[in-house]
Design brief:
The protein is of the alpha+beta class and 603 residues long. The protein is built from 18 helices and 24 strands. It has four domains: 54 residues, no CATH class; 200 residues, no CATH class; 118 residues, no CATH class; 88 residues, MutS, DNA mismatch repair protein, Chain A, domain 3 (Orthogonal Bundle). The strands form five sheets. Strands 5, 6, 7, 8, 9, 10, 11, 12, 13 and 14 form a ten-stranded mixed beta sheet that branches. Strands 15-16-17-20-18-19 form a six-stranded mixed beta sheet. Strands 21-22-24-23 form a four-stranded antiparallel beta sheet.
């Protein structure tokens, strides 16, 4: 006999004195009810009316499969750290201002990363909109146990769907990928092992992807969570290594309370956890998964890959919005024959393949066509380019760009080719090393493709790393040369690595500043402590850091009368006070993120 929400072990059964007449009656009623349900052919379901905080449930008449698949959030213990990880409040400007573009970028990037061998990747994006939103009764079995957490105090959600509101949803699927491989029951990352399942469902802000990998499901999945009004997604994967088909849900809220009980922000949908480990396990029930696929128009079938479903998708986007995002960021791998994308909405399907991409671009027209079409022409030309047609430059050790890099008597010839509208390809050899390990340099190269398109548009070099356009570089690299279109392509392994520390100093002022802040942070603190001690006349003044209060200035009570008016109190301890200042606050905000922001600028 299984119990829901009782707090008792699921195997619990009264014995001895607890077997009261009331208990026997309840057992008789339960058995009779099950017999009746079985007789009518509905033996797989049980109907329950949920009441949460005095409100009727979002999923009235909520049913659950007999296997008891449900949503589970672990109750927090005394001493557990409170976390508020809802990503919508901290996301990038692109994810907020152009959520469709951010979703396409992250989703396809991670699909390319999970490529199985050298085959083509196929991506399908389906957006139901309000027109094809599913009725609440069709989805209630997939949300059993979530309602009370969606209504919980302080969960961070801003707009919970109404009790009769249908569910618009988004589906993002890939094929030709490995799926989420790795031990689905692992609860921590083990050094030396790749576990994509763990990093998608159970890790936050980290992944196991290395040099040749493009995406970071440890971070990128939050674009999909942020697209949901209830910060929830489902992941259905077929794994290339063992063929298992697994379904699990994930919801990320804030630390929240239900009554007097405090719950962790992270919830999962699947097999309820055993009492001993609190670990929700994925679902493999083929009939349940088949119903899930049918309900949410998922095309997964038995082919390896990953399907993500975003319920109550809050993005008001059209098929053209998604098409624009794909054309802007992924024209290169599509034209290279590495990627096909299918965009679907009710009543419309757009195929973006090598043979159709330019025609779809012409349909959209406007500034997007003006910017992307010349780059498509350049990309198509590069497809058939032999190794012999690349002009190989000699890169000086000091990275100074001079005419000596070019073969003798070639500059004038190259200018004439550009003026005639001919396309030119350069291959530039480089030695790649991390800043802190110059002795481990590796030979590599990048390619530069360019031609004059006859327009008066400013030239903007477009940087591509392993098939993905790096937008920050493109925005910063605007050229004063009008009418010159160019692609800078880094696909050789050493230069395409994502470890950071690959761009030498002097190339980008902001990158240099962030590196200096990360590497010289202790010196800044020492200098600031010295200057503040001199300014205040407090020789014992010291600057320190802890994880709770961050950086602070500590002053003993003996010198309290010398504390300047611009000091801001943070904490009182025995015999001392701790303060901060505006310069220290600014420094803290920058130095703690300097390394990750430097890597973002590089890549």
């Amino acid at each position: 006999m299984k119990w829901r929400g009782s707090g008792r072990p699921r195997s619990w059964c009264p014995s001895g004195p607890e077997r009261s007449p009331a208990w026997r009656i309840s057992v008789w009623l339960s058995v009779s009810a099950r017999a009746c349900v079985s007789f009518t052919g509905l033996h797989r379901r049980r109907s329950l009316l949920c009441i949460t905080n005095g409100k009727s449930s979002l999923f009235q008449g909520s049913t659950a499969m007999a296997e008891n698949y449900e949503w589970h959030f672990n109750e927090m213990r005394r001493g557990d750290k409170e976390r508020n990880p809802i990503q919508g409040e901290f996301f990038t400007a692109e994810a907020i201002d152009q959520p469709g573009k951010a979703l396409i970028r992250e989703g396809i990037q991670n699909a390319l990363d999970a490529r199985q061998g050298d085959g083509k990747i196929t991506v399908r994006v389906y957006c139901s909109g309000e027109r094809a939103a599913v009725n609440r009764n069709q989805i209630k079995e997939f949300f059993y146990g979530l309602e009370k957490h969606l209504n919980a105090q302080g969960n961070g959600l801003r707009e919970i769907p109404g009790p009769s509101e249908p569910c618009p949803y988004l589906v993002f699927e890939d094929w030709g990928t490995t799926g989420l491989t790795g031990d689905p029951e692992a609860y921590s990352a083990h050094p030396g092992t790749n576990n994509h399942f763990y990093h998608f469902f159970r890790a936050e802000g980290r992944s196991d992807k290395g040099d040749k990998n493009l995406g970071r499901w440890g971070v990128g999945k939050h674009v999909f969570l942020a697209a949901s009004r209830i910060n929830t997604l489902f992941g259905l994967t077929v794994r290339a290594d063992d063929g298992r088909k697994l379904l699990m849900g994930m919801s990320v809220l804030k630390t929240h309370y239900i009554g007097e009980r405090r719950y962790s922000p992270d919830g999962w949908f699947g097999h309820p956890p055993q009492e001993s480990d609190g670990l929700v396990r994925p679902i493999e029930d083929s009939s349940f998964i088949s119903q899930f696929e049918k309900t949410f128009n998922v095309s997964r079938d038995s082919a390896p890959g990953l399907s993500i479903v975003v319920p109550w998708c809050g993005l008001d986007l059209t098929a053209e919005d998604f098409v624009r995002a794909v054309l802007n960021d992924y024209f290169w791998p599509i034209l290279q024959g590495r990627l096909d994308v299918r965009i679907e909405t009710p009543g419309k399907t757009v195929y973006l393949e090598a043979k159709s991409l330019k025609s779809e671009l012409r349909k959209i027209g406007g500034p997007l066509e003006q910017e992307i079409m010349p780059l498509c022409e350049l990309s198509e030309w590069a497809n058939d380019l032999s190794e012999e047609r690349y002009i190989r430059l000699r890169m000086p050790a000091d990275w100074q760009w001079t005419a000596d890099m070019f073969p003798p008597q070639s500059l004038e010839t190259l200018r004439e080719k550009l003026d005639r509208g001919q396309k030119i390809a350069f291959r530039i050899p480089v030695r790649v090393a991390k800043i802190q390990d110059q002795n481990a340099a590796k030979e590599s190269f990048f390619d530069v493709l360019l031609y004059r398109d006859g327009s008066n548009q400013p030239g903007k070099p477009v940087f591509i790393r392993e098939g993905i356009i790096i937008p920050e570089v493109r925005q910063r690299g605007a050229s004063s040369l009008r009418g010159i279109r160019s692609l800078v392509i880094a696909e050789d392994a050493p230069i395409a690595a994502r470890e950071g520390g690959l761009i030498v100093g002097g190339w980008d002022a902001e990158l240099d500043r962030l590196r200096a802040m990360h590497e010289n942070g202790r010196q800044w603190l020492a200098d600031y402590q010295s200057s503040e001690a001199q300014r205040t006349g407090i020789p014992t003044l010291k600057i320190a850091y802890n994880r709770v209060f961050g950086f602070y200035i500590e002053i003993t009570n003996a010198h309290r009368d010398r504390v300047p008016a611009d000091y801001i109190r943070k904490q009182t301890i025995k015999n001392a006070e701790r303060y901060t200042t505006e310069p220290l606050r600014r420094y803290e905000g920058e130095v703690l993120t300097a390394e990750s922001r430097a890597n973002e600028l590089e890549y």
